[in-house]
Amino acid sequence: MQNIYPIHAFKDNYIWIIHNNNHAIVVDPGIASPVIEYLHTNKLQLSAILITHHHNDHTGGNAELLKLFDAPVYGPMHELISTVTHPVREGDQINLQAMSLDFTVLEIPGHTRGHIAYYGTNPIKHLFCGDTLFACGCGRIFEGTAQQMYHSLKKLSRLPDDTLVYCAHEYTLNNIYFARTVDPKNLKLAELEVTMQALRRQNIPTIPTTLALEKTVNPFLRCDQPEIIDSVQKYTDKILLTPLDIFTELRNSVKISKGVKSILSVYFCTLSIISG
């Protein structure tokens, strides 16, 4: 049986550990110490490290882990990460025999130029997407373009609806607050806010989410929907002709109304604290 366990790191990062009774894979270890503690406590052998992009809060623990474990490190071919031993690109297949797991590599630039995701289907559909798709949100654009990010999100949205999405930060509540300013009549968002608030009061992660849910509540995946188009056009005083135009304005911190300026500021300042 395989388990996926979140290790909380820094302020709001999640380091994901996939493991069975003997072996483990770690995704985006920004720091080594809590990973080492979890592996030792559960008597697990590290079989591989998966890296989505080069930011230090996703790679900072690699060197220390490699001092203790002889494990391959998979990471994006188009980014310079000194600890990556197995550079991978779009369409590559990663077979991790010790875990009986296979991943397909997806290139999803935008947050960084070479950002990748890992998609697996055994035993369930799961996606490790770093800082590209968040619950009710998406990552900031540091090195890529709005067009790249938009197309990366569209690529992810074409995966099966029952895919479990494991992103790398606990941004969900702030993302919901923003989404509700853009899409105030979305009852699913209102319900989700109550549910997520209850989880966070108990310090329970709001991740994973599912693609099916994100397609109903995430404004960045719904830039072709009339309610999102109307909202963005109304408050930008622009005629925006394409979903990409809508996405670009939305991602650039559109001031949806005077009353929510502070909410938007909190939202985007939060996302800029680390690298998400």
Account of the protein in words:
The protein has 276 residues and is of the alpha/beta class. The protein has one domain (1-276): Ribonuclease Z/Hydroxyacylglutathione hydrolase-like (Metallo-beta-lactamase, Chain A, 4-Layer Sandwich). Helices cover 36% and strands 23% of the residues. It has a 6-stranded mixed beta sheet, covered by helices on one side. A 6-stranded mixed beta sheet has the order 7-8-9-10-13-14. It has a two-stranded antiparallel sheet with strand order 11-12. Strand 9 and strand 10 (126-130) form a beta hairpin. It is globular and about 55 Å long.
Characterize this entry briefly:
With 276 residues, this protein is an alpha/beta fold.
Q: Work out the strand percent.
A: 15-25%
Please identify the oligomeric state: single chain
H/E element order: EEEHEHHEEEEEEEEHEHHEHHHH
Structural class, by secondary structure, is: alpha/beta
- Give the helix tally: 10
| Amino-to-carboxy terminus distance | 31 Å
What CATH architecture do you see?
Answer: 4-Layer Sandwich
* Count of strand segments: 14
Q: How does the SSE layout of this entry go?
A:
Elements lengths: L2 E7 L3 E7 L3 E5 L5 H9 L3 E6 L5 H4 L2 H7 L4 E4 L9 E3 L4 E4 L4 E7 L8 E5 L5 E5 L2 E2 L2 E2 L7 H12 L6 E4 L4 H11 L4 H15 L7 E2 H7 L8 H11 L6 H9 L9 H13 L3
Parallel strand pairs: 3-4, 4-5, 5-6, 10-13
Antiparallel strand pairs: 1-2, 2-3, 7-8, 8-9, 9-10, 11-12, 13-14
Helix pairs in contact: 5-6, 5-10, 8-9
